[in-house]
Amino acid sequence: MITGHLGVAGILRSGSTRRTSTVLLLALLAASVAPDILDTVYFLLGFCSPYGLFSHTLYVVALQAGVLGGISFLATGSRATALIFAGVVLLHLPADLITGHKIMIPGGDLIGLYLYAHATLDWAVETPLALLGWWLLRRSARAPTWASSIGAAVFLVIVQTAVAGYALTHMTGVKPSACFALPAQSRADTRD
Ligand SMILES: [Zn+2]
Question: How far, in Å, is the centroid of ligand 1 from the Cα of 119?
């Protein structure tokens, strides 16, 4: 899942009674894709994390939720904000299980609906989720102007459409992996 994660962040933050600054919103959007950022760091380091073993398993996601929730609490002094940060990280996992497949525990089975096999279906799930987050945030009137703008919604649709187009034409994932040499792991298995 890609823009759907950002949608989840928007949905959770729209329930806050506090005004959301640009820095806070960007940090929250980054937290919503924290496991994918971790995968990107692993790739840059040339470190193989098969099927999200060191980024998307339950223990590692719980650890990321704790760390990012803690940092956001220290930075804002708001328990509600800390819970939202921890929440978007934890919700990354169920969202990924809709569009991809992952192992939940080391050595466990691969589970997930894997909508990535059908790029248009993936688009049909993620785009409304992203737009729902944008719309709720816009309706709350407590988000930065750029995030509430029509342009932000258009941007989300363009990104998700580009991802679907890439998947349809290349039949591969968009996320790089250092595991290409593993026979059991194809690029399609590592994307989200
Ligand atoms: Zn992910």
Answer: 16
